[in-house]
Specification:
β26, α13 and β27 form a beta-alpha-beta unit. The strands form 10 sheets. Strands 14, 15, 16, 21, 26, 27, 34, 37 and 38 form a 9-stranded mixed sheet that branches. The protein has a 6-stranded mixed sheet with strand order 4-3-2-5-12-13. A 4-stranded parallel sheet has the order 7-6-10-11. The longest helix has 29 residues. α10 crosses α12. Among the domains are: 142 residues, no CATH class; 99 residues, Dna Ligase, domain 1 (2-Layer Sandwich); 60 residues, no CATH class. By secondary structure, the protein is α+β, with helices and mostly antiparallel strands. The radius of gyration is 26 Å and the shape is globular. It has 16 helices and 38 strands.
Length: 710
Amino acid sequence: MPRDPRGDRPRPRSEGAERGDGDRVQLQRPRAAGPRRISAIHGGLPEEQRERVVGDKGLESSVHSAGVDVGVDVGGTFTDFVGFRGRSVVSLKLPSTRDPAEAVNAGMREVGATGMSHGTTVATNAILERKGARIAFITTAGFEDLLTIARQNRPSLYDFRVTRPSPPVPRERCFGLHERVDARGRPLLRPTPREIQRVVRAVRDSGAESVAVSLLFSFLRPQHERAISRAFRDLPISVSHEVLAEFREYERSSTTVLDAYVKPLVTRYLAALDASLRHGFLVMRSSGSVTTDRAVVRRPIDMVLSGPAGGVAAAASIARAPGLRHLMTFDMGGTSADFSVLEDGQPAWTTEAVIDSFPLALPVVDIESVGAGGGSLAVIDPGGALRVGPESAGADPGPVAYGKGGDRVTVTDADLVGGALGPGLLGGGLPLRKELAAKAIERLAAHLRISADEAVLGVQRVVRASMAKAMRLVLARRGVDPTEQALLAFGGAGPMHAVALAREIGMRTVVVPFLPGAFSAYGVLISPVGREYSRSVVRPLDRAGPAIARAIAEFKERARSDLESQEFDPRRALMDATVDLRFRGQSYELSIPLRGDLAASFRRAHRVRYGYVSRHEPIELVTVRLAVRVPRPVRTPARPTRPSHSSGHRRVLFEDGWLDAEVVHRDSLGIAAEVDGPVILEEDHATTVVPPDARVSIRPPGLLVIEVGT
């Protein structure tokens, strides 16, 4: 078996070698409520739960005078809407509802939207909460145990009691088809019509609601998968050569199974939204681009990470500014915190994402998520230690300060009692009851036998420690020095905790963008239309030229056809070709742009990533890829022309104790303004805390840049 030169760990091989120690995305908690059947909504949400809409002068404005296209980000606590009328920004934040479509429909009516780009975690939550369809898995006979055996990776190397999560498909609904294709794509055994009908009857008798088909080496010869799929025209079906035409049968099968697992749910969800909106719309994809709702229905696994990907797409749009080419994104909402890295202005992506221990081998934005948000609950574990998250209070009942019956302390309650958070959310539309939060903090402090102030600081320290752990993982995975990165903080709670978190990690600069509380929705709105194509073509690099050329030519033709079918102009498309390369015998690859001397580029990238390189080992081509993007307009909000709020003061609890901090509305700061901490910068979308020894300045296009100090 091939060995990992970094750890001398043996690795199994089958269709292809075991996936290496490359980059992974691990989702730990869902962000939105569970799936239910959706119907059109005919009533809005209460007026007191609506955020005001802000125009280019920072004043409340009518949003019904003309239709707008909006970006929508459905989170676990709030659903955000961002659109533009000229350079006037139209924004709205509503509490998320148990049925995600309720808030989406209500917000669309409220802003008078005529078009929508939609980011959601409906598919993600179906996987994490195990609420997907009852599916059947069809594979080559003899490989029925593939999903159970999986790989030799152990989540805890020395734990003899460790148990793996059960696969989405139980063994009794895994069926073998007598067929075989060899590693060169040559048919060794063709499935007969009688054999196909035998498997079809078994699947139907199992009561399956959806079907996943992944046959050995079908990415080289898909005819057998097509034959079996034609027999299931009345059931949703996912076939691996369409979902992921790459080698490594376990990862390909896992991705195909997840696609089938969420397909009925996503189909119902998007169809209901389409019916209630009375027109089609765009959906954010995990790779950082958008596509039509019709295209997502064909491959719904594309939208699994669509919510967090919006924030990274928005970050890429401002990374063009001087000094912001190297960013780490920090998106802290009500339920979770998401982190990613942009190097030289480009988002990092991976084909080794993991969702609830199941591989997702599609190209996705490389994001690390933890269950740490404003609604994360503070609890005392059996050992008497304070823990914060991953369980969240959500939007209902929400934090104690909401006054909806919640009785357990959340991060929001601690921030409110500590003075960092003002007396209301949603631009004052959601008042916070500080006296209720203070009583809950006192109860927590009594259990811990500490003062109320220590309890507030304890909750903040613990949640930051959880986030700092995720940040260090992302930075180490990319080999990035934190002192060379700026922390881009957004989400409703991100700017409040960013400076303290940056100091803990060793970062020197924090950047807070415009519309921080709805920045992911802004990213969904401006993301390009896109699609990715790939195929495994394993062969020596020095003989791979013709195979690469054929694959790229086919991908370009498919891209033109796909764009035209979705009514986009293929002449505006930007195409980026890459190849996955490795030294022969390795079990992991590096993605290299398809230009210039590929061997030299690969060796340089290998040295940067792993610290060494061989000058003599032969190089193999593994996979050919083509990413296609059709740009959409990127607009930024106009700066307000006059202050919208006067300054004030309030007492805020910092690590050094209670201090009197000036409270300034963000719109009252002009370009090039500089303010020393301690200061609280308030706006309708978020609150930014600038502690002592830090300084904040305003830079185009309306960014808050904070030098964190010590």
